[in-house]
Amino acid sequence: MANLKILFVDDNELNRMVMEDMLEIVLEDVSIEVYESAKEVLALDVNSYDIILSDIDMPEIDGFMLYDALRNEHNYQKTIIAVTALAVGGDKERMLMHGFNDYISKPIDMDELERTIKKYI
Predict the structure, then answer these.
(1) Considering the entire predicted model, what is its pTM?
(2) How far apart are CA 102 and CA 117, in angstroms?
(3) How far apart are CA 53 and CA 40, in angstroms?
(4) Residue range of the domain that includes 104
(5) Which of 39, 54, 71, 121 is deepest in the core (most CB within 10 A)?
(6) Residue 40 sits in a domain of what CATH number?
(7) Do 58 and 37 form a contact (C-beta atoms < 8 A)?
(8) Which of 71, 68, 83, 25 minimizes the C-alpha distance to 47?
């Protein structure tokens, strides 16, 4: 897909830097925008993004609340992928049942990232 536009939100600066670098390595012709809070994301015209990657454990507005706002208030119908270090049994299933299209666990494996993103482009 030419000119793929991805948004990544995570409250951790290192995670944002690593994700941006990894996406640029595994994808061609991609535009990546990173944000540190869900509040920033909700102020955007999110429908211009092809894929949204969202951390789950964020202050103020967590990934679940962001997902709900994107789907219900912004009518975002494209891919939303949870990116999280939550690794307790059932967490992946809980995110998928909530509606996320997919799940990527931290620490992020580059092969898993590439496989997951390419499923949706």
Answers:
(1) 0.95
(2) 9
(3) 14
(4) 4-118
(5) 54
(6) 3.40.50.2300
(7) yes
(8) 71
Distance, CA of 42 to CA of 51 (rounded, Å): 15
Which contacts qualify for 17-20: CB closer than 8 Å, 24 or more apart? 18/108, 19/53, 19/83, 19/108
pLDDT values of the chain reduced to their tens digit, one per residue, 121 residues? 458 999 999 999 999 999 999 999 999 899 999 999 999 999 999 999 999 999 999 999 999 999 999 999 999 999 999 998 876 778 888 999 999 999 999 999 999 999 999 999 9
**How many domains are contained in the chain?**
1
DSSP letter assigned to residue 60: S
Other CB atoms within a 10 A radius of the CB of residue 64 amount to 18
